[in-house]
Amino acid sequence: MSLATVMVCDDCAHEVSLSTLVNLCPRCGGLLEVQYDLQAAPAGLAQRARERRGEGMWRWRELLPLPDDATPVSLGEGDTPLLATPDLGRRLGLERLLLKNDGLMPTGSFKDRGFALAVSFAQHLGATSGFTYSSGNAGASFAAYCRRAGIDATVFVEDAANETKVAAITLYGAEVLRLEYDTSAQIFETLDELAREGYYSFVNFVNPIRHEAMKVYAYEICEQLDWEVPDVMVHPVGTGGGIWGAWKGFNELRELGLIDRVPRMVGVQAAVCAPLVDAFDNGRDHTIPTGDAGATMAQSIAGDTMIHDGRRVLRAIRDSGGRAVGVTEDEIAEGMLLAGLGAVAAEPSAAVSVAALLRGREEGWLEPDDTVVSVITATALKQPGALQAVAPRPSGVVAATAQAWKDTIRRETAHS
């Protein structure tokens, strides 16, 4: 079933078998990327995927690197709603704005796509334990899928991880330890060292399988639009696995002849810690440590540097004709409120993709007639403190009497 053939190193082009549990390139330490023989794709692939709707993400299995004889570890991930939001669109001056709501995934965030695949792959090849690091959402997802697979999970959480997210990780039975560190670069150096010594990590990009699941964004979105391609896809960026995977997926669909163009990819970070934006604005092909990760409410994407210097994400953005955008804390709060007008509750790191739309209209890189897909990566219930701080307060207090309620309720809602 799978069209995956081999993993290839970004830096030295060394090939690694898909029957091997490996993180970085064993020759040079570069990032590995799964390759596919799309020329061998069966006719009617998209139609067969449509007929397998009940399988969620796994109905696209031919385009994922899971061996044919492997059984997916699944909690029901994939096929999240793509919601038209005409009222919100009118407010933002966009005629066709859609929200892809991955806050409805099994553990409440888009991380479930990646861990469903990565844990399935590792379990099939005999892994009995693994680790990741996380600001919270990835840890909860990893812990849940490892619990489902019978794999012992260790999660190192960032010091900014809120107690709600940490509690979710421990709920699924993972061992959780809080990290002490000076910069994000220290964490990434540790990950590289452990990978060289043979410790198997589930961290995005360091693990070459996880971000492959994010290609399914492209498949789902284009199918939900009846194979129309959005003009712009807006995605929050922490490590960048989501936007890179989606970009890869759109390009695969074009190679398969299912679409004839690809969208502009817009990556969004909090302005106070935006290494991607800094590199993009200054014309570099790599990020450098930038900003203060502790100064933003967008905890899930907070970081002063990026894995392997963000080269893949910068390449995807530039090759697509897109851009990197940094949004302020006030804009993030406004983004949460605007997402609510679209009937979606977004945590701060997810709401940045809505906040960026305001900037896009003001600066002119979004046109009124663009078809725009803004990805909501996690539910606001992941960060209840931020939700309570941003959401409007109740209107007041009313007595529990019919007359008091009638004085408040709009007349047209009453039965005749």
Automatic annotation (TrEMBL):
Residues 73-377 form the Tryptophan synthase beta chain-like PALP domain. One of its GO terms (biological process) is threonine biosynthetic process. Its EC number is 4.2.3.1. It comes from the Bacteria. The modification N6-(pyridoxal phosphate)lysine is found at residue 111. Its cofactor is pyridoxal 5'-phosphate. This is Threonine synthase.
